[in-house]
Amino acid sequence: MEYRKLGNTDLELSAITYGAFAIGGNMWGGNEQKDSIESVRASIDNGVTTLDTAPFYGFGLSEEMIGQAIKGYDRGKIQLLSKFGLVWDGSNNGKGEYFFDAEQAGKTIPVYKYASKGNVIKEVEESLRRLQTDYIDLLQIHWPDNTTLISETMEALETLIQQGKIRAAGVSNYSLDQVKQARESLNIASNQVGYSMLNRSVEQDLVPYALDNGLGIIVYSPMERGLLTGKYFKDGKLKESDHRNEYFQQFDLAKVEAFLNAITPLANDKGATLSQLVLRWTSLQPAISVVLAGARNAEQAIANAKAMDINLSAEEIKFINTELAKI
After folding, report:
1. Known catalytic membership, residue 112
2. Which DSSP helix (H) or strand (E) runs through 13?
3. Catalytic entry in 18, 57, 220, 232
4. What keywords is this UniProt entry annotated with (predicted)?
5. Percent helix, strand, coil in the chain (nearest 5)?
6. 21-49 pLDDT tens trace
7. Across-strand partners of 143?
8. Phi, psi of 108, rounded to the nearest 5 degrees
């Protein structure tokens, strides 16, 4: 495993970071809690010391399971990354920016983006309780809230740093302009964004800025929610409640399948799976600090960690990029 300094902080994160969205269950068709907790522990045991979660993942369930899973480990050697700013329990009293309707126990629940100073402080206390810890290593706003001044949100984060409740602050899903606005108030450490072989838009502006200004980039969905594993093309059946049924339709699936077929021999030569090859390629892209990878069980978690054992030459990376250009 490689460990990388995040932006302008002294945080050392594992290059492969455990992404805890799927274990929360909502939007992913559910998961067994026992398997989820074992996947977290297997990750840690194989060098993945950084865990990324959020209150919204499973409406608190993901954070609770992370808290259970890390019991017995040295907290000082684990980095907990969480978020704030998505409210689903009505505590925002109608304030904030309506985002979408989520489903919980058969009920439709409106979710709001809400990042006022008071709400940030409130959410952190709830996250600390669920995670069973007294500090969060990196706290990130989950999505921009256009009803709250960025400076107000950053003020809340600065207060939490001063109180020792968080070690560093970051943002997620921010445009470059929003990152710059945030940094006028607080020298944020990172921006967490969607990035994959099929989604490289941040290379146009965010990556050059990050390289020049000491901003860390944390990437999620490097596997495009499982599409780049290749499994979808072998067994395309997903649960009816799985959001990926709709999500995958944005891609030219025939071209994606052809690309995966083209790079499969390289993965085989490396003794790796397609997933591992994709994760390793992603980790080697400019300005990418760490790559989030989800796992539903211990086997998947171990495989994700071992992706960092793959060596890719400049020629092999060029080959992958050449095939990518055909999509």
Report:
1. no
2. strand 12-14
3. 57
4. Oxidoreductase
5. 45, 20, 35
6. 888 655 444 457 888 899 999 999 999 99
7. none
8. -90, 125
| Tens-digit pLDDT profile for residues 151-190 | 999 999 999 999 999 999 999 999 999 999 999 999 999 9
Token digits for 145? 């809230």
Provide the 8-state DSSP code for 204: T
The structure tokens 């030569």 sit at 269
Tokens representing 62 are: 């993901």
Q: What are residue 293's phi and psi, to 5 degrees?
A: -140, 125
The pLDDT of residue 234: 82
- Integer Cα distance of 86 and 141 in angstroms: 9
Percent of the chain with pLDDT over 70: 97
Place of tokens 């054992």: 309
At which residue do the structure tokens 């397609």 appear? 274
Q: Could you tell me which residues come within 8 angstroms of residue 146 by beta carbon, excluding any fewer than 6 positions away?
A: 97, 113
Nearest-5° Cα angle at 293, 85 to 78? 75
